[in-house]
Amino acid sequence: MKLAVFDFDSTLMQGETLEFIAKEYNIEPLMKQITTEAMEGEIDFFESLIKRVALLKGAKEEKIKQICENLPYTKGAKETITELKKMGYKVVCFSGGYETATIPAQKILGYDAQFSNIFHFKNGIMTGTLGGEMMFSDSKGKMLKRLQNLLNINSSNTLCVGDGANDLSMFLYADKRAAFCAKPILKKQANIIIDNKDLTEILEYID
User: Fold this and answer.
1) Which end of the chain is more exposed for a tag (fewer CB within 10 A), N or C?
2) CATH code, domain with 88
3) What pLDDT is attached to residue 41?
4) SS3 string of the chain?
5) What's the confidence (pLDDT) of residue 130?
């Protein structure tokens, strides 16, 4: 058995979930600024997460779900996941984003499991807070190690794909480290670099 782990925002999906939501509420520039600082590793991921979600306080749950169910997926995402599964990989999504987006995407893209964060709603309204499994800069690495131990998979049979600083921690446990249209901080630690927005190019490096 082998394991492939994909980031969601700007990897399996074209863009950042929070920015698509922010656009509907006319706060996209501020949201984008905080996201960029986090992905470049300029500010702590957890701090950026708290700041960004707080901006959405008062948003309607129904509207957020509608946006998250209609996100644009990256070219080749479904095809790449399908091929990896044929090659014996368990394919998992680790997202610093939200299950409001990753659960609908799982049905479309076909990955085996997802680990992400959860918006907190009260009476159908966004409270501006969240919880979840991927809230810290080292969350993905810790979860990957737990999965490897559970499934008895080592680093030589592990592929990780991401684009930003919060993907660095999972690179520690994978021999195949793919930076997909990524920030410089991640490219420095990668041994597979894809600069075209087509995930199928990763398959050229996988045996």
Assistant:
1) C
2) 3.40.50.1000
3) 87
4) CEEEEECCECCCECCCHHHHHHHHCCCHHHHHHHHHHHHCCCCCHHHHHHHHHHCCCCCEHHHHHHHHCCCCECCCHHHHHHHHHHCCEEEEEEEEEEHHHHHHHHHHHCCCEEEEEEEEEECCEEEEEEEECCCCCCHHHHHHHHHHHHHCCCHHHEEEEECCHHHHHHHCCCCEEEEECCCHHHHCCCCEEECCCCHHHHHHHCC
5) 96
Task: Quote the domain boundaries for residue 196.
Answer: 2-205
pLDDT in tens, 63-75: 999 999 999 999 9
- 175 classed as catalytic: no
Per-residue pLDDT, averaged over 36-51, amounts to 91
What is the model's pLDDT at position 112?
Answer: 98
Number of structural domains the chain divides into: 1
- 5 contacts 161 by C-beta, under 8 angstroms: yes
Q: What's the pLDDT at 207? A: 78
Q: Find the catalytic residue in 9, 138, 175, 198.
A: 9
Let me know if 7 is a catalytic residue.
Answer: yes
Do 128 and 57 form a contact (C-beta atoms < 8 A)?
Answer: yes
